[in-house]
Amino acid sequence: MTFDPTLALAAFAVGTVVGLTGMGGGALMTPVLVLFFGIPPLTAVSCDLVTSAFMKPVGSVVHLRRGTVHLGLVKWLSVGSVPGAFSGVLIARALGHGEGVQEVVRVALGVALLLAAAGLAARAYLRLLERARRRDGRADPLPQGRPVVALRVAPTVVVGALGGLVVGLTSVGSGSLIIIALMALYPRLKASELVGTDLVQAVPLVCSAALGHVLFGDFRLELTASLLLGAVAGVWVGAQLSARAPGALVRRALAFVLLASALKLLHVPTRETAVTLGLVLLFAPVLWMLVRRHHGLPALARASCPEPPLPASAKPLVPR
């Protein structure tokens, strides 16, 4: 077994992004392996899922200790996602081992990355809309303690099954696609609880998919060892930086990278890819500023920073 420092460095960079944002593990690692290292798509998916199976529990423990996990949601998501993930592996296995299956996995990965990029944009918009509604008093404030959530069992199991199927086939979706569905099903959950619940449910999901790929996929121990050494260190560094780094900027860069990777995986010609990415760079910031203004927020996020609180001596007296 040989250690590949270049692979470890790439995994460190991806792990840092995961530590910063809680997202982007499979959505970044797998296309990096395919596009920059020439690793076959099925092999990249197998090695990435085994690596993620070691990374996910780290953040899960933190959220469990903080009490930001709804175990009821985790249970019903897992009821769908665990068999769904294993089924995704079996589907990839049934397609064979030749160039045909590699191409199917490559296209499926490209589509999943497009959905993940769209999901990041949708998540940002929903957060902006929620901020605007609460500022205007048009939405009920979220409860300060753990919110009472009415479990929607059937839709939750379906979300888990579909998410697991996508993850088992492409390694993408455990931290991006499923959390968007949770936001739609359970809008009263706080952001920290959405992240915590999604991260914990991803542990059995990713472990199931990883086991399936070890048994039936194209798992390679030497590649995974190099990925693990870099990714685990990167997650730790990213977690330490998360309190100081501009997370919104990192997520926007992540969405751009996902779009670029998806276009290349879908065999979009280089010129068309460059034109598409150029248009996104040119018009997306302008469009986002217009959306912010439409909802009554400053065009630039830094202009909306809250004013520092008044000292106690300067606060107006309120009659009892």
The number of helical segments is 11
Number of strands: 0
Portion in beta strands: under 5%
**How would you classify the helix and strand content by structural class?**
mainly alpha
Mean pLDDT figure: 79
Weakly predicted, low-confidence segments = 303-320
Q: What level of helicity do the residues show?
A: over 70%
Could you name the key traits of this structure?
disordered C terminus, mainly alpha, 73% helix, 320 residues
Structure report:
The chain has 320 residues and is mainly α. It has one domain (5-139, 148-296). Helix content is 73%, strand content 0%. It contains 11 helices and no strands. It has helices at 5-21, 25-37, 41-66, 71-94, 99-135, 153-170, 177-185, 191-216, 221-241, 247-265, 270-294. Helix 3 (41-66) runs antiparallel to helix 8 and helix 3 (41-66) packs parallel to helix 9. The longest helix is centred in the middle third of the chain and has 37 residues, at 99-135.
